[in-house]
Amino acid sequence: MNMFSSSPSSSSKFTLFSPSQNLNSSRFHFIVPLKTPHSPSTHRILPPIHSHHESSSSPALQEKPQNSRSQAEDSEMDDGDGFDEEIMKAKKSLEELLVVRRPVMEFPDEGMSASAEGGIGTASSVKLKDLTASSGIDEGLSRFAKKMPIFEPLRVESSSEEKPLSVNLDLALYRAKILARNYRYEEAEEILRKCISYWPEDGRTYVALGKTLSKQSKMNEARAVYEKGCQATQGENSYIWQCWAVLETKVGNTRRARELFDAATVADKRHIAAWHGWAVLEMKQGNIKKARNLLGKGLKFCGGNEYIYQTLALLEVRAKRYEQARYLFRQATKCNPRSCASWLAWAQLEAQQQNNRAARRLFEKAVQASPKNRFAWHVWGVFEANLGNVELARKLLKVGHAVNPRDPVLLQSLALLEYRYSTANLARVLFRRASELDPRHQPVWIAWGWMEWKEGNLSTARELYQKALSIDSTTESAARCLQAWGVLEQRVGNLSAARRLFRSSLNINSQSYVTWMTWASLEEDQGNSVRAEEIRNLYFQQRTEIVDDASWIMGFLDIIDPAIDSIKRLLNIEKTKDSSASDDRGENEQSGGYSSDPASGSTTGSGSGFNLDEFIREKLSLDPSKLEVQLGPSRVAFSKSVKSAANMRRSDNKNVAATPKL
């Protein structure tokens, strides 16, 4: 019996396996036609699998039966060379078919759908060719798909929903600015920190948060914010570098401030504030040549700028080249006619040269350039008070307070004015109101303490001086406070305490001429003329070329120090002047064109025809005749404050009377 003969149910089938495939791992077998010479009834010739012109209804792939191994062993006994060749072709086709097998979903085609349901059918050979031809494209697409993140569209869509629109950042920054202006620092900080979490790459948020922390004397936290901002912006934001440099300048870290200003100019050489701030720093250190060089670079890279011209003019004022200074001030106002700082600095020059009519015209220009600028109203009011024009000075300070109700400096100067020309009770109310507006403003406590000393309330004055020092004992205001306290102790006979206070003041500011001379005067009064001469010599040996008056050094942001104007001029705490001299000068000024009559107070006497009352009505929407009401929340509360201040004064007088005078 021939080895290929078999029963009708199983004689015509055997399984082929690829040599590279494991027999147990393959799930499919291929049906190859056989010739059965001894069974004519079962003789069939099926077309080969690679025929493109004929089709067969037999399925190309089937599940492998359990006896597939035995059938494969029987197929190895084939004795036809042509048949072997046909088997090799079929094996090659099977390998390619298995490699490129894809799910039906990738080929939404009717023929493939039909083959998925009931086999390849009549179009199996055609589909197989298309499948083989597209295998190269599918393989390339598969490799490309592996490189793409699977959930990228979802992630982008999710982040865009969570992150607010950029317009919300502008609104949040504006709201934080308003909150900080109203001393609601905690709310402002919360908003700014949320902005940093949403927009960590925006430098404006770091600048705003750093300034808010600096106003609260949180220098370490502000420094950390600026450092984080520089890292987040990769050091490319010059504004953060510049604000950080200003912070280091305030705390006295000059070397670090220079490095930060340098970094700001490297980040953006057209950042004018960096050049200007660096120049002001060098001016404070006495490096005038370096300051001029930096200001020249600012003009070179940034063009004409009012702040640069203004600072150059201040340098000329220090050198007493007043005509050159006036020329530079004129250039500054040409660059920006709305620059209130330039008009004010120029007016201060004319006031120093006693050109009072010209100074008034410049003050008018300043308030017209910026009607709500607190510096303009304050400096002008102090100027008129020093000339004895009390009514005009009071009106100017009240207008400034009306448009800046949260500013303590205006109330401080107004309190000193009222104490000098009115009553101490009203001055106390104004001092208390100013201290409530900004409890960390040292000049308010110093001026209040000076007034209580003049009224004889020594214990109250000491408490107020101590309060000022508890805020910050390293500032120039603290040095002035120690000097004033030393004068108090000198007058009551506590000479050892006075010497300690003078020495502490000089440890903070060794350039104060007034402190050195006051100490020398103390020693001379005690008969220690040799010691007094030694103190004077010490001053001249260690002095530098830095002008003690900070108003000519600080630049456009710190044109006038409230403590200097309020204490040095109005209070005469540094130099004792005869009050009659100032009164005579005020009378001379009045004869020069100013009328102190309230009825004619609408003009300032500058000769320019500027009508102050009309300007207040039109530009500020205020009634000049009702400025008194705007000094406090209500007249009832104001009267209660006056009564409480009077009670405090009576109790203080009792304490002073019970204490023996030294």
Automatic annotation (TrEMBL):
Species: Sesamum angolense
Organism domain of life: Eukaryota
Family matches, as PANTHER family: PROTEIN HIGH CHLOROPHYLL FLUORESCENT 107
Keyword Transcription regulation: no
SUPFAM superfamilies linked to this entry: TPR-like
UniProt-annotated stretches for the region Disordered: 34-82, 576-610, 639-662
Protein name per the record: Protein high chlorophyll fluorescent
Lineage: Eukaryota, Viridiplantae, Streptophyta, Embryophyta, Tracheophyta
Keywords of the record: TPR repeat
Example GO molecular function: mRNA binding
Compositionally biased residues, Basic and acidic residues: 576-588
SMART domains linked: HAT, TPR
Compositional bias annotation for Acidic residues: 73-82
Renumbered ranges of TPR repeats: 306-339
GO process terms (BP): mRNA processing; regulation of translation
GO CC annotation: chloroplast
Biased composition (Polar residues): 589-599
